[in-house]
């Protein structure tokens, strides 16, 4: 149960939030497509990674509720070990590749919100010790 992982990480969630998260996990488990995500979430030892997994679970549930065809952790380039979190398709053959990034930096969140007030796109530079990347994305609604 996810409550064991939450307790092991020293987090405190209200009972309703734990139940909601467990229901999402159970729903996704039934599809059989997200077993890797669920397994990784249950054994997560880093709080920030755990929150990222919660974000991915929420995205996966939205995809499934929308009735879209999806794959989790998809390799999109031959001879490359990097994966994209989700490949989403519809009946017409349209495909969307989605990389989920949970930004926990308040400054970044405020910048994104401001940009989204002005349009459906945002762009942000993530400047970390090991990486410098520019991310651009658009608003997606299901």
- Strand count, sense and closure of the main sheet? 3 strands, antiparallel
Approximately how much helix is present in the residues? 40-55%
Question: What is the residue-averaged pLDDT?
Answer: 81
For the secondary structure, the number of strands is: 5
Number of helices: 5
Keyword list:
single chain; 142 residues; alpha+beta; 3-stranded antiparallel β-sheet; two-stranded antiparallel ribbon; 5 strands
Plain-language structure description:
The chain has 142 residues and is an alpha+beta fold. The chain is 45% helix and 23% strand. It has a three-stranded antiparallel sheet with strand order 1-2-3, covered by helices on one side. Strands 4-5 form a two-stranded antiparallel sheet. Helix 2 packs across helix 4 (47-65) and helix 3 packs antiparallel against helix 4 (47-65). The protein is globular and about 40 Å long. Mean pLDDT is 81; it is low at 129-134.
List the helices and strands and how they pair.
Blueprint: H1 2-8, H2 15-31, H3 35-42, H4 47-65, E1 69-75, E2 83-89, E3 95-98, H5 106-118, E4 121-127, E5 132-138
Antiparallel strand pairs: 1-2, 2-3, 4-5
Helix pairs in contact: 2-4, 3-4
């Amino acid at each position: 149960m996810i409550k064991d992982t939450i307790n092991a990480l020293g987090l405190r969630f209200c009972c309703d939030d734990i139940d909601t998260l467990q229901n999402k996990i159970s729903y996704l488990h039934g599809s059989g497509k997200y077993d890797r995500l669920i397994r990784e979430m249950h054994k997560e030892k880093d709080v920030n990674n755990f929150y990222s997994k919660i974000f991915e679970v929420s995205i996966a549930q939205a995809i499934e509720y929308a009735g879209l065809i999806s794959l989790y952790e998809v390799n999109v380039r031959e001879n490359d070990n990097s994966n994209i979190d989700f490949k989403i398709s519809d009946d017409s053959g349209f495909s969307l590749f989605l990389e989920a990034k949970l930004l926990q930096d308040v400054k970044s969140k405020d910048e994104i919100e401001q940009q989204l007030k002005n349009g459906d796109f945002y762009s942000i530079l993530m400047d970390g010790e090991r990486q410098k990347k520019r991310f651009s994305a658009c608003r997606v609604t299901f």
